């Protein structure tokens, strides 16, 4: 009878012991992704500030109907 030999290379690599230093390409890709997210948030914030509905809510005028500062106010109003 032959001796049973354990096959090698079948077990998966140990994920806890598989550190690889960061590559230049990985650092550049991460920096570009962070920059794109930052620019997208900046543009969304700027667009939200230019939204008339949001501006009226921030001013506290959401219940006001009509011109908040009329040129010729009617007496008694």
List keywords for this structure.
single chain, 77 residues, mainly alpha, 2 helices, 0% strand, rod-shaped
Overall pLDDT metric: 77
The general outline is rod-shaped
Please tally the helical runs, counting DSSP H or I stretches of 4 or more residues: 2
- Percent strand equals under 5%
Main beta-sheet strand count, sense and barrel state: none
Report on the structure:
The protein is mainly alpha-helical and 77 residues long. Helices cover 44% and strands 0% of the residues. It has two helices and no strands. It starts with 23 loop residues before the first helix and ends in an 18-residue tail after the last helix. The model has no long low-confidence stretch (mean pLDDT 77).
